[in-house]
Request: fold
Amino acid sequence: MSGLRSVAALFVLFVLVSSVSALGAMASAVESEAVSAVEGAEEAVAEAFGAVVEAERAGGNVSELLDRLDFAAAYLATAKMCLRTGEFDGAVGNASLCMGALEGLVDDAAALRANAVTASSARFGMAIGGSVVGVVAVVCGSVVGWRWFKQRHYARALAMKPEVADE
Amino acid sequence: MTLEDYRTLFMVGGLLLSLVAAVPGLSVVFSFPEGERFSELWLLGPGHMAEGYPFNVRTGELQGPVYVGVANHLGASQYYVVYVKFRNWTQPLPNVTISRASPLPMLYEFGFFLADGESWEAPVSFVIADAAFEGNISAVAALLINNRHFPVDLSSRWNVEREGFYYQLFFELWRYDVEAQEFRFHDRFVSLWLNMTAV
Reply:
């Protein structure tokens, strides 16, 4: 009878130890899932911002993209705070919302950058071309104007009647 | 006026008009000097003024809101983070002369993006959620910032000179460096002195 009790006690102990270690492993898995979700979201926000910066440097208007990034950054900040305070479900949830806010943003930034580069090249060409044409027009106009003025000046001088002044 | 004078007049006029015509081209080739580039960080009291900041605090008493704000004058869009930290009066603050943030753990944080010339502001309310006093020591176990609970486990000795149990809630400004691909302390912080008065 006492042997049976010992076996039962050992079985209960085994079940308890197994449960505790299983719960520990589950908690650890949840934590590592949260950590990797937040790290993934951090990298995604940084990548998206890099793409937006490129678009801005090319001369694109990035205000709409920044608004979308702002949502993502707010979710990311909440996810990081959840992670620090041990709210792993909250961390995963907010990291997922962050990723959702970033959907398509890198592609949109790349498209904006491409458009901005094209527009910038056109603006550059217009500015340089316009200036060159303008300067050439001014120089030619000045030369032609000067010649016309000089001929008119000589013609007026020749048309004058000389007068002999008394000494 | 002689013909020589007229010629000089034509040449000067032509030169001036040429310069005017060249301005669009020159403006894309040369960059003109710009103003000073910097970021602003501020902390305002509950009335949106630089007054009425919380100072004497008790356990469980809601403080604020105070308003933390940032403005971007860096000439390009920026990714900022404001970290809220809490310390007793003997623990280190950030050192802006050597660009070093406080080593204390961050509690609350705000992340946001600002285009050049834009500003951002957010309310911050807080509660000393759990504090105790024993002799010349006070201890704060937890802090609620914008309804989010943070265990802090911090104690402060009685400050003989200023007669109080002093703590400081401070806000560090960090900026994402695109080239280095990491956040860097942006050499700016603002703070609130708090005197724990009673449980």
Q: What stands out?
A: The interface with chain A takes residues 3, 6-7, 10-11, 13-14, 17-18, 20-29, 76-77, 79, 81, 105-115, 148-151, 176, 178, 181 of chain B (CB under 8 Å). Residues 38-198 of chain B form a domain with the Immunoglobulin-like fold (CATH 2.60.40.10).
